[in-house]
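Hi everyone, sorry if this is the wrong subforum. Our group has a chain we'd like a structural model of before ordering constructs, and none of us has done structure prediction before. Sequence below.
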Amino acid sequence: MKLSSKYFDMIRIHRPEEIVAETRRSCDWPACDGFGEHPAPAGPRRSDRRYFCRGHITEYNRNYNFFEGMDESDAEAYRRAALTGHRPTWALGSRRARHHGQIDWQLQDPLEIMQHAGPVAGEHVARRRVSQGQSRALDMLDLDETADAKAVRQRYKQLIKKYHPDSNGGDRRYEDQLQRVIKSYQYLKASGFC
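Answer:
Right subforum, don't worry. Here is the predicted structure as tokens:
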């Protein structure tokens, strides 16, 4: 066994001083002759590293700018995406599966493999599930839960024409009803009913 082997020296607990001195890097800070023991990324989109001494690594970290070289719109887009962990997000209720205009909670078929399938003989089609808020909004529009999106839009237009001051001769008695109709329609749209 060769006691002066480089492999043998690497597994020793206490390495000889001359070997330790050879493996040390110098600090990458300009005009510094200290040892660069602390690695740092060279730049935001670079994979290489720079090595600094203890005093200069704190200065480098304090002044490090991740957005260096990016224009303002890219930096702002990165900041907005960082709020959600760079994962896609959607408005609540906006990505429900739709099948022929109606919401289907049980079936998500992005390849449309099951589009030909309908209710089997003897099965009944489940009624549309309506939340309590949707039910109240439909009551405000004088509709029941069997109404489809087209019926909701038609009824909304009728009530706007009826209650809006421009179309009823400037009569302001119906302003509260107008506001309730508008809020009800906006709620139905936001909840995915129409």
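For your construct planning: The first strand starts at residue 38 and ends at 41. The two ends are 82 Å apart (CA to CA).
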